[in-house]
Amino acid sequence: MRESWVPLFGGDVYATPRRLVLLSNEAPEREPDEWVQGPPEKLRDKAAEGFARKQGVSVGELEVRDGFLGVTKAGRPLAEALPERLNELVRGLAFSKSMVWDQSGLRFARPVRWLCAKLDETTVEGFRGSTFGHRFTHGEIEIPHAREYFELLRKTDVEVDQDKRREQILGGLRELGLETPNERVLSEVVYLVESPIVQEATFDERFLQLPEQVIVTAMESHQRYFPLGGNRFAFVANGGDPKTVVAGNENVLEGRLEDASFTFERDVEHGIDELAKELKSITFVAGAGSFAQKTERLKALVHDLGGGEASQEAARLAKADQAAELVREFPDLEGHIGAEYARLAGYPEAVCAAIDEQYLPESAGGPLPETEAGRVLSAADKIDNLTVAFALGQKPTGSRDPYGLRRAAIGLCRLALESGLELDVPALVERDRVGLAEQGAEVKDDVADTADFVEERLEGLLDVPVEFVRAARAGGVSELGAVARLAETLAAAASSDEFERAYVAYDRANRLAGKADGASAALDAKLATDEAELALIQSLAGASPKIEAAIQAKDFQAALSAASELGPPVDRFFDEVLVMAEDKQVRANRLRLLLDVRDAVGALGDLSQIPR
Amino acid sequence: MSSTYQEMIARLERYWADYGCVIMQPYHTELGAGTFNPATFLRCLGPRPWKTAYVEPCIRPTDGRYGENPFRFQHYFQYQVVLKPAPEDVLDLYFGSLEALGIDLQKHDVRLVEDDWEGPTLGAWGLGWEVWCDGMEVTQFTYFQQLGGLELDLIPAEMTYGLERLAMFLQGKKSAFDLEWAPGVTWGEVYKENEREWSTYNFEVAPIDILTKRFEEHETECRDLLARDLPLPAYDQVLKCSHTFNLLDARGAISVTERAAYIARVRNLARKVAEQYVEKLADAPV
Description:
Chain A is mainly alpha-helical. In chain A, 51% of the residues lie in helices and 8% in strands.
């Protein structure tokens, strides 16, 4: 509606669980004029007359636009246009899933039971001038004038404006002491009621023995309740007698908590070690084996990440709760409930906390794991999710990202940037692919794709122009944090003389030799004849190890200084030496020299990405 | 408002009989839901109108909890109503049935929560709502769109009341075992031991080898019956396949990959039965 209607006729769109509403307070008096395009202007002689006749105008009235003949059709007065326009609107709405319900063939999200349309006080032809109030408190109501619609519905217990309903719910929750309700639940509840009434209720205190996460999830995931702390909760009713409705909802929640208690106790009886043994028979992703096999890969990754004993132990138990009945019931509890079961089994807190934190950050900007073992496990889990998806050919495309891989990649970048975790993504991905292949998985795609996908996320996270990130990604470091610091170093130095000299050396060498054929395999100093050539060879011999050592030490400033030493000799070389010499050997050797210069400076990245 | 479990069922029977439904009886083989009953699945195919209502025991082996969980059972009851085609006032009719049960719609918070329904083993889907009474989901309301992979001539409305939940709401009970079935007799007294023994059977005892073979046999028999142009007996074999699969699933004998393949096999049979049933309908004199 916002796309098809509002741009032409203005207005706002409203929705309740039972109605879709469009209100235009300042609707235009006519439809917008319409351009009817005819034949190309160059066919005027042949086709103009026929087109004009069809449109009911004379040839002289035809206009030209963008090389085409055409006519501007004046829009009809609104009253005349509305029946057709509104029908098109109703029939043209697209839903992710739509249905039919009678022989009319109309498709909609749910059956359309009435269509009310008023232009001021006139009922639009083919529509009705009445609507229905709250389902159980009011019946059909006449709408004498379009502007009275909202007020009349308000009187029949329907708040049409979703923003107002949201405010009413927020206000009610605030009165109960809840300032920041769960947004996911709130945005759903707004569209579950037409007449929101916030109610306070309680449950039996004996359920407080359950882990808080379990109680909260039981309330939020199915019942859409708002926990108020302790044994209090709030819910939003759509009507009814408060006392009766509160008692009913309390009963339902206690039933669900009873259910959760039974499930919880059964899981605890099994114990986390027993649950971990069941992972053999639970598929992680079709094509990538079971959760037991995932666990093996996580252990290998944690080892490569330099994780200590706690993270090793946490990796072993990380997925155990996938076998827990509670997680099957409430998938949101994964990780949290595993940590709880590990605690009950007496594992050290560092292990339990890591299990709890493995899925962090839950949103791109959400909090990161706070413990060392949690960071390592969280990184390992994300590396494996990415590697598996790419290896199975299921990388995200456009807006399709069912496994949340963008979020995982952003999580990895943030672990490197904000937590200082060392993440050599290509090496880790390669390690994981070997693990996958050993387990018998068919591995497609290559390491570079997965690593690129992760590194690309740095572009949005770092406070430097993207060109510097792109340049740094091609440099001599692959560890994520180092790539980021290299990009920052380059960006900070971008206007310095040092940078300019390094850039010149890279750029001139690259421009000439980068695409030329025939460079020799290795530099032969004996073939050098000119003084400037010898000088460059000497400078390179001096600078190259310095650059390399500085990159190794991740002292990118020092690497830049060393690289900048090559600027003047490269300039001189180009001034005095003819690279494309007659002698093939000499030419090949000079091309090699330039490529070596480019590669030495290129440890700082692909500087050609940076616009000058 | 409080009434016994059996009184609640009697009132629903009365209400829908008065509306003109054919009151059917439960089917004679294990079903996972009232939708599987031929009175729903087959009768909703083809061009003939049909109105029915009946109690259906649901057998869901994986849902058993040895009678220890107040909310979950491997055997429970649905009240199934099908109106084909769905009349325009079908929702009002449904709400009328709640009133017939003594529910004051002004006093309670009754609402519809959108829900998409899918029955993969039957090649079926539809759109509709969950009906909530004071936070308790008591009914699944669905406008079928496809059954057995076939588009439908007339769109039926299916109303599936979860009888235990509805009774828990009506009687204000937190456990189904505490429901009053008849005056002085609880649901638990009638069915608790049943839950315990059947859970043991479903999870621990049911013979995997025999069941695996049995699935194949039912599948073969279904094909044979289709070859003899007998879709109604063939459909019983689909139901038996489905139940055998559910038992194997409860025994943990089916891996996740196999699962999809088993479901596809049942769906394939259901589709063939549906096609043959519709063909025969077209040939039969009205």
